[in-house]
């Protein structure tokens, strides 16, 4: 455990404790729902964190697939740049701006497009080669944890407010459950498959699963649903003090998620190094000389040793 990890862990614990205090005792009580609404300070930040982690998994998976051939990687980079430029400029055209959901500003869409492009190239630079696959696996595992929190806290909140635990026909709820199932399937594939193509198959599944994230997010704008409108970016509203506490808890959740990802990524890195060392030792024991400068193919993860 590094010094920086310890410092961040302490700061995260302080943030989580302070966020809990603000959410439970300081934030004003909702006039319609009463104190049960306070679950929003854990339900919504968990959802935002899960979406961010699934997006990181998507970016890492795309880069991992594109990195198989230099020409493919070059082409994908240009596609991302062009898509980002279109996403930055298009919202300012009146015809496009008129199609945006109520409360969603063109500047917000343009800024989001730039952030997505920047994050794409940052991930590729910081995590080259096999590190992309390790990052994708880590982000998916932690993302599933936070998505599980969303699916647990949602019905707890819905029961006293809607009178039911779950609305089967609600597109937001159904698409969130489908998203969770896709990424659980992703982890099952990574856990139990020994095929040499497992990493690529999992990356393809991750790209497919990421397509459900926009559906989950935008479903309440384009479909009739019992789910309330978003508190940020259109249709919904929230008191300024409540919003401050919500963002504070999201910051705490992001720090907590980063700590978990940091630990899980290092654990996965260590596991692969151990597997590589064992593979090299097996080759030496069998009398087969290892090719100089050849990298050993690491079998897919089947659990921590």
Notes on the protein architecture:
It contains ten helices and no strands. By secondary structure, the protein is mainly alpha-helical. The longest helix is centred in the last third of the chain and has 46 residues, at 240-285. The model is unreliable at 293-299 and 301-305 (pLDDT under 50).
Task: Please describe the structure with a list of short key phrases separated by commas or semicolons.
305 residues, mainly alpha
What's the short story on this structure?
By secondary structure, the chain is mostly helical. The chain is built from ten helices and no strands.
**Pairing-aware structural class of the strands and helices?**
mainly alpha
User: What is the strand tally?
Assistant: 0
Order of secondary-structure elements: HHHHHHHHHH
Instruction: Outline the biggest β-sheet.
Output: none
Percentage of residues in helical conformation:
over 70%
What is the helix tally? 10
The radius of gyration is 22 Å
Secondary structure blueprint with pairings:
Layout: H1 3-26, H2 40-66, H3 70-89, H4 94-97, H5 106-126, H6 130-162, H7 171-192, H8 198-210, H9 212-222, H10 240-285
Helix pairs in contact: 1-10, 2-5, 2-6, 2-8, 2-10, 3-5, 6-7, 6-10, 7-8, 7-9
């Amino acid at each position: 455990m590094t010094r920086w990890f310890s410092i961040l862990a302490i700061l995260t614990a302080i943030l989580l404790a302070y966020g809990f205090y603000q959410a439970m005792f300081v934030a004003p009580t909702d006039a319609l729902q009463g104190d049960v609404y306070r679950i929003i300070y854990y339900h919504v930040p968990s959802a935002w964190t899960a979406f961010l982690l699934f997006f990181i998994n998507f970016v890492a998976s795309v880069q991992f697939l594109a990195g198989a051939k230099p020409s493919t990687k070059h082409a994908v980079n240009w596609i991302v740049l062009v898509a980002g430029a279109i996403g930055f400029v298009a919202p300012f055209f009146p015809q496009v701006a008129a199609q945006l959901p109520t409360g969603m500003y063109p500047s917000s869409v343009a800024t989001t497009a730039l952030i997505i492009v920047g994050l794409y190239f940052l991930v590729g630079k910081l995590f080259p080669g096999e590190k992309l696959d390790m990052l994708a696996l880590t982000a998916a595992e932690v993302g599933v944890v936070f998505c599980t929190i969303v699916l647990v806290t949602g019905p707890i909140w819905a029961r006293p407010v809607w009178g039911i635990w779950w609305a089967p026909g609600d597109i937001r709820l159904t698409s969130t459950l489908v998203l969770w199932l896709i990424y659980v399937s992703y982890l099952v594939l990574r856990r139990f498959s020994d095929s040499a193509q497992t990493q690529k198959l999992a990356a393809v599944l991750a790209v497919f699963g990421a397509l459900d994230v926009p559906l989950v997010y935008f479903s309440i704008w384009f479909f009739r649903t019992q789910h309330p409108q978003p508190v940020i970016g259109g249709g919904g509203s929230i008191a300024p003090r409540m919003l401050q506490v919500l963002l504070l808890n999201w910051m705490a959740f992001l720090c907590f998620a980063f700590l978990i990802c940091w630990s899980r990524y290092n654990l996965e890195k260590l596991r692969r190094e151990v597997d590589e060392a064992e593979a090299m030792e097996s080759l030496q024991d069998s009398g087969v000389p290892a090719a100089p400068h050849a990298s050993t193919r690491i079998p897919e993860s089947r659990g921590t040793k």
